[in-house]
Write a structure and sequence with these properties.
By secondary structure, the chain is of the alpha+beta class. The protein contains 3 helices and 6 strands; from the N terminus they run αβββαβαββ. The chain has a single domain, classed as Gcn5-related N-acetyltransferase (GNAT) (Aminopeptidase), CATH 3.40.630.
Length: about 140
């Protein structure tokens, strides 16, 4: 076993760990793993946030971390507009695919209707539910 002690990582440790993994991945993968943030928001006429999307474009993929639409605005096409705009922006950077995950109580049907396909399910995440992984080719 290696000598040394384990301790909680500092912010500086976390930054160095990420930088070292990024350098390794870029060398081994032969591609750019830098992340380009993609952030969209939709507000109503009163300036209230009604939906948005947060993601990153990395190594030719848009990775969507958050897509949320206010319950009052669901079914209006706002979610599809957010996806479409994000996909368009990702294509403009040369991305060739999109990936995201959702839970079984969230939006699997919505993503399927928007051209996404399931490529994995993780059972009992949380217990009694599934985490669902989807992708789409651009």
């Amino acid at each position: 076993m290696p000598s040394g002690t384990l301790r909680p990582a500092s912010a500086q440790d976390a930054e160095q760990l990420c930088a070292r993994l990024l350098a390794f991945n870029q060398k081994a993968g032969g591609t750019d793993f830098d992340e380009i943030p993609l952030q969209l928001a939709s507000q109503d006429a009163n300036g209230q946030l009604r939906g948005g999307l947060l993601g990153d474009i990395c190594a030719g993929w848009l990775v969507i971390h958050v897509l949320w639409v206010d319950p009052e605005y669901r079914g209006t096409g706002l979610g599809s507009q957010l996806l479409s705009q994000a996909e368009q922006q990702a294509r403009a950077t040369g991305a060739h695919g999109v990936t995201l995950d959702t839970f079984d109580w969230q939006a699997e049907g919505f993503y399927l209707r928007n051209g996404y396909e399931v490529f994995g399910r993780l059972a009992d995440f949380p217990l009694g539910h599934q985490r669902i992984y989807l992708r789409k080719t651009l």
